Amino acid sequence: MKKTIWIVVSVLVFIPVLLAAGCYMVVQYQYKDTFMPGLFVNGFYAADYTPQELNEKLKEDTECPDFTVRDKEGKEYTFSLEEIHYEQDYLAQVNKIHSSQSVLRFAEWFMGEDIKFEELEIQPETSYDSAVLQEYLDSVKYLEDNSDPKDKIVEIRRDSGGYYLYDETRNLLSHEKASETIENALSKGVFEVDLYKEGCYIEVDHTSQMKKTLEKWDALAAYVESTITYDFGNATEIVDGPEISSFIATDENGDFLFDESGSFYLDEAKIKEYVKTLAEKYNTVNKPRSFRATRGELVTVDTGTYGYKLNEKAEFEYLSKVIGRRNQLTRKPEFSQEAFTNVYNTNNDIGDTYIEVDLTNQMMYYYVNGRIKINTPVVTGNTSLGRGTPEKVCYVYSKERNRTLRGEGYASFVNFWMPVYGGVGIHDSSWRGSYGGTIYKTNGSHGCINTPYKEVSKMYDMVEIGTPVIIFY
User: Fold this and answer.
1) For residue 311, what is the DSSP state?
2) Residue 330 and residue 232 in contact, taking contact as beta carbons nearer than 8 Å
3) Any bridge partners for residue 427, and if so which?
4) DSSP of 404-434
């Protein structure tokens, strides 16, 4: 009976143990040189590969790009890693993984209902020929050392863009630091470096003379960094750093001139010249204008008193006051005279409310917002006596009632007087019985625009001072 029990125990206990041990030995032997199933290394399935084979496979799939060096200006330089015999090898880590693989882990993976794969990420060991690398780094110009403080220059220079500071003491490349940075990156498997971000540029101390130059530049920067924007409504004029700094007076050698307080001396002539260029561009007084007459023709009037006229004195004083204060300003220009439209437009500032005097047809029209409000014949200056009414683009600059007009050999009382150009104006003329036609040629006025009482009285009540007047043949 006891013998029977012993046999049963042996069958139930010792035989499974022996079988398990046998299986363990078989698996251990089967995968003594290769990887067991269930393992991914760097995304590659390692089962049945030897460490050497897996190493070669991983090396094949590992990219080895060119090395990129970026300087302080963002310019990039590259060199081939093959030239320095750069290599990457995973064998040490792969051997470590192989030696630590577990039969029990395999059994758990093999027998489990929910099969889970193990995924590992490993980094290669790197190597390269340090002597070849250093030879290359010592030979390229972009890594040339310029950190020696000797003979460095700090000076204010000027080109087409204006004044700027030329300082050779800043951002000097240290060849030693750059070489160390590149080697450190290679040892970590990093294939690009930014020399500026990695601190490979250094600065050297300024001499006393350099410091004086820097003080002068700091004062000049208040000019260089300023901007004044002139707002002309539908256009802008920008007075920027180069323009502003050009207003600083210099001697025959180009050196700055200073006043008694040590401030830059401004060249008033240059400021006035700049203001004059603005006036020439935006003034419309005495500039030709093309005008579509009521009779349908396009006529051109060459001169006149109507339009914009920049107040050059005011703008000179303004610029002289604000220049050199490191400001960002916007300026609406001051005009000594403005157009009736209050719209800056060098092409047409007449607008759609104006008085039109057609000397050829001896007709006058008063337009308000583009519509004719008054349409009347007139009598203008006597051309046979050389008193013809001048062709001008002018404006109503005054309005008076009950005025006696005086001139050489005459004194005429008028009820309504609206001068438009010097002594030429629009007025009633009680002494006339008819208007229009060719009366002006032999029996015209002294230059004024004689108008029927009924029409001029209406115009007087409606018209505003400043209204444009276009007089033409």
Assistant:
1) -
2) no
3) 417, 450
4) EEEETTEEEEEEEEEEEETTEEEEE-TT-S-
Q: Mapping DSSP to helix (H, G, I), strand (E, B) and coil, where does residue 139 land?
A: helix
Whole-model pTM over 0.85: no
Rounded CA-CA distance 293/197 in Å is 70
DSSP state of 146: -
CA–CA gap between residue 367 and residue 460 (Å, rounded)? 14
Which amino acid is it at 298? L
User: In 3D, which of 317, 247, 230, 245 has the Cα closest to residue 281?
Assistant: 230
- The sign one gets for the Cα dihedral 133, 136, 142, 147 is positive
For residue 22, the model assigns a pLDDT of 47
Between helices 312-322 and 268-282, what is the axis angle to 10°?
Answer: 130
CA distance 445 to 435: 11
422 is written with which tokens? 């010097």
Nearest to 417 by CA among 403, 434, 397, 396: 403
281: its two tokens: 């561009």
Predicted pLDDT of residue 321:
93
Is residue 378 pLDDT above 90, yes or no?
Answer: yes
- CA pair distance 425, 410, nearest whole angstrom: 16
Asked whether the beta carbons of 429 and 405 are under 8 A apart, the reply is no
Four-CA torsion 169, 172, 177, 182, nearest 10 degrees: 160
Q: Between these two residues, 315 and 190, which has the higher pLDDT value?
A: 315
Burial 43-66 (b: 16+ CB within 10 A, else e): eeebeebebeebbbbbeeeeeeee
On whether the CB atoms of residues 346 and 317 are closer than 8 A, the answer is no
pLDDT digit string, tens, across residues 261-308: 888 999 999 999 999 999 999 999 999 999 999 999 999 999 999 999
**What gap in Å lies between CA 72 and CA 15, rounded to an integer?**
75
Distance between CA atoms of residues 420 and 404, nearest Å = 17
Widest pairwise Cα distance in the chain: 169
Instruction: Summarize pLDDT for 452-467 with one digit per residue, the tens.
Output: 999 999 999 999 999 9
Residue 106: φ, ψ to 5°:
-65, -45
User: For the segment 90-110, what is each residue's pLDDT rounded down to a tens digit?
Assistant: 999 989 988 888 665 665 555
In terms of C-beta density within 10 A (0-12 exposed, 13-18 middle, 19 or more buried), how is residue 215 classed?
A: exposed
Q: How many CB atoms lie within 10 A of CB 313?
A: 12
